[in-house]
Amino acid sequence: MANTGYAPLFETKKVKGSFIYKLFAASMFVGIVLIWIYRATHVTEHGRLVWMGMFVAELWFGFYWILTQAHRWNRVYRQTFKDRLSQRYENDLPRVDIFVCTADPTIEPPMMVINTVLSVMAYDYPPEKLSVYLSDDGGSDLTFYALLEASRFAKHWIPYCKRFGVEPRSPDAYFRSDSDELEAIQAQHLASVKKLYQGMEERIELAEKLGKIPKTAVLEHRGFSKWDSFSSRRDHDTILQILIDGRDVEAKDIEGCRLPTLVYLAREKRPRHFHNFKAGAMNALIRVSSEISNGPIILNVDCDMYSNNSESIRDALCFFLDEEKGRDVAFVQFPQNFHNLTKNELYGGSMRVIGQIEFQGLDGCGGPMYIGTGCFHRRDTLCGRKLTKGSMFDWKQSTAPRTGESAAELEERVKELASCTFEKNTQWGKEMGLKYGCPVEDVITGLSIQCRGWKSMYFNPERKGFLGVAGTTLDQTLVQHKRWSEGDLQILLSKHGPVWNGLGRINFGLIMGYCVYCLWSPNCFATLYYSIIPSLYLLKGHPLFPQVSSFWILPFVYVIIGEHACSLAEYFCCGGTALGWWNEQRMWLYKRTSSYLFAAVDTFLKLVGYSDSGFVISAKVSDTDVSERYEQEKMEFGAVSPMFTVLSSLAMLNLLCLAVVFVNMIRAGVLESVHETVALQMLLCGVLVLINLPLYDAAFFRKDKGRMPSSVTLQSILVALLLCSCCAFL
């Protein structure tokens, strides 16, 4: 470094303690192998098929545990040097295009959407090099009206943010934060800008309540003429409106400073054309933005994921612009974090172990996956460029947008790029842009980029880059994980999967890391088997595990204690609580026995032509009663759902089995002998009952609207009784 004068813009460090973990992992592997040996050498004559089923389940658990070691074997973390970036490139920074995607104003409220938009417009970055695009796949005039209001408020909000250096720069989040210790001058400005925000909020919410836009607003802006009586959410022309034209030197805030470009896009929708959900919206944005601003760097965020760190762009650029190590970086992924989590994370929504441990491990194997939000991309790699020897990121040579056209002329020329028919007979959705045909278009797109030779980087700064909204009901959480796990399994089974497409192209550890997520849904079968069969055979008095006095009990005990102790330690290291970890274990069980089950079934049905996956938008708002129960950490079981029927049936089965066994033990007075022969089965059944206490409470005791529907409770009891009866006759 001293000889060449090269000072890196970022550095990579290994996480400490990897050697100790590797020793522990080696001992765990020995324990797993001993369990396999026990199953293979102690097959019982009675219940041979059941015993072999246990063997297969344990083979699967062991195999899957081995895959997860790719996340922990070589963990790294990154540190950026933004001061060096400023010294080197402050006057020559690349243009950045930011994509915000929304799809339904009823599920994703316009006020939430524009708070995200305003937060990214206020980045600590030259405004003339910043362009923000809102893709509205709902084609809603209400969303357009909200964005129009935001474009006016931005003239006051952006200078306030930059003058006082506030964080976060989402107005709603900032106003909710503590602002009691402000200096008099800032407090005065805050009161003024807050009053403007409240006025904007009232106008938008009134329009939302009335279901129509004020006539004065309709007459003031030509954009509203694009909505007519023939337009609908799924049948309308392309609507492209440049609300703030960054090329216009007169587009300034109240302090006379330039404003970022702000664009609204509702791509053309026709009933006879499949629109490819978010992937289609992103590809339309890539094409449209190439003619308006053509930033060589693209950031995409979900509409609920506001910017929490005004320097995130500069952090990302440290990876792209590093002269030595940035040449092969295709995208920089920030973690998903959430601002509405309860203290003990009722639904395990933080995914803290994934974000703080597993993605560090992926980063050490070649880079994290693309998770669809909070990700900075190079435009050329998104458009299909392959990595070649000597590839350089020459952002200075990226074509500048035209300047001779008016905004209206530019809109008219460019809107064809967002038409339904533009992609016909092109490589869009195949080799260019985000890939089509998968519910998790982000993951498969990131994998294909990595298979073209590019690397990705994971950056988890101390101040979180983005904060979003986690699900506030059990149903929302399970449905979301059903979509994710179904899409990941489809990737594994496709020609674009990490095994078929990645071998020889990406690091083998990265292939293993991808397979951990791609095999989420098949986990359901082994988990269901372990949740049902040992309890039923406990009812029959047939042992499926070694006796307490046997040597073979030791590997089972060691693996069980070791795995859960390691899991608890990881959770604590990530800042979680003991009760939060317990909630995480419950959600682990619930996802594997419901979300993943339905995902696996739907995927296999789709393979034979009986099912077709659709994109499900997770609700970002909840009723007041639901929100109150969520804040009190009461699980929500109020919906009638087949997933709840499965969960409740398993819970009732284990409760029934444990109760019957205890009653029989007390009557027969054989506590010691039972303890000797079926101790692990009783422990397993008891833990399953304990982990389901909130479900029993919702089924039998609660009176609020979040209780389990009576029909679901009755069905689950009947299913449990039926299974117990069938077992008794076998």
Automatic annotation (TrEMBL):
Keyword Transcription: no
Transmembrane domains' residue ranges: 19-37, 49-67, 511-532, 596-619, 639-666, 678-696, 708-729
Active site residues of this protein: D137, D442
Main location: Golgi
Keyword Transmembrane: yes
GO MF assignments: cellulose synthase (UDP-forming) activity
Coiled coil: none
GO biological process, one term: cellulose biosynthetic process
Sites where the protein binds Mn(2+): K278, D302
Annotated binding of UDP-alpha-D-glucose, by residue: E108, D137
Membrane topology: Multi-pass membrane protein
Location of this chain's protein in the cell: Golgi apparatus membrane
A GO CC annotation given for this chain: Golgi membrane
Annotated Pfam families: Cellulose_synt
Its job: Thought to be a Golgi-localized beta-glycan synthase that polymerize the backbones of noncellulosic polysaccharides (hemicelluloses) of plant cell wall.
Name this polypeptide is given: Cellulose synthase-like protein E1
Lineage: Eukaryota, Viridiplantae, Streptophyta, Embryophyta, Tracheophyta
